[in-house]
Amino acid sequence: MAEVRTAQGKLYFLVVIDRISKFVFVEMHEKVARSTAADFLRHLVAAVPYKIYTVLTDNGTHFTSPGYTASAAPLIKAAIEVRERFGAHAFEYACLTGPTRRSLFF
């Protein structure tokens, strides 16, 4: 995610680059919330004609909860299986319920 200043104000760019095909997917937003990254992932999955296996992200708050050093997917999956209520980061949940797995990049 990159912040760009324009004459009209700030814009936030969310960018994905497929490391194999070099395909680039970009969305621009005037405001960014934690759910924006999850929505971006869902839009990406709908836009590409192939399955996404892994998403590499930094440890930013738009992608994971502060203090996490690994994916919370196993905890979320366990809670879903026993129908237990849980709180989850929107991006983590989107990765778990979509066709992707996630790796943190430090």
From TrEMBL:
One of its GO terms (biological process) is DNA integration. This is DDE-type integrase/transposase/recombinase. It comes from Acidisoma cellulosilyticum. Residues 4-69 form the Integrase catalytic domain. It comes from the Bacteria. InterPro entries: Integrase_cat-core, RNaseH-like_sf, RNaseH_sf. It holds the Pfam family rve. The lineage of its organism: Bacteria, Pseudomonadati, Pseudomonadota, Alphaproteobacteria, Acetobacterales. GO terms for molecular function: nucleic acid binding.
